[in-house]
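#lab-general

N.A. 3:47 PM
ok so I finally got the sequence cleaned up, no stray characters, all 223 residues accounted for. can someone with queue access submit it? mine expired

B.Y. 3:52 PM
send it over

N.A. 3:53 PM
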Amino acid sequence: MEQSAAIYELDTQRDVEVKTMAIPEKAKSIAVVDNESMEMANGLLLDIKALRKEVEATFKPLAQKAFEAHKAIKAQWDKAEAPLKEGETILKSSIRKYMDEIERLRREEERRLQEIARKQEEERRLAEALLAEAEGNKEEAEAILDEPIITPTVVIKADIPKVDNRMFTKRYKAQVFDLPALLKYAVSTQQYDLVLANETALNARARALKESFHIPGVKLIVE
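B.Y. 4:20 PM
back already:
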């Protein structure tokens, strides 16, 4: 029964396609030069309108069936995927928290060792200046104390297993909360890519106002 229905649907589709394929040649054969030819053209336009309804009646149910099938499969897909996403979120959150803590400790230890190195350099500098002053070289002692203290940068590598950092990269996104402020900024800095025209709203306004439509920066197109 299902096979017969499928064959019928296929035959119907082919019949509609044959009808629509013939339209362009018919349209080319009509040159509107007088009332008679204008009536012929208008008649073909009415045929096209009728064919559009036939095309819709043929393919819309098929599209609806495909859409319903897609929704059902997607629902099952999402159901199977949900536990995996939940587990992944739990693990990534735990790993990220651990990595953040290790990074905090690493930086803290770097600062501690850097401070020790700075103090050691200060003590060495002071001892050198005191020695110079004891030898009667007061200017040299002052020069030693005036020199900027430069210590080697301390770098500590975190001792953690290697992971794919792309999985734990923080992602940033923007959210508009003040549209007038954004528009003002985009115009003042000429960064027009930050805002997009609402073509749906503009088209609705054009359909409503027709020839009286007028908005600065927008032109009316009649098709």
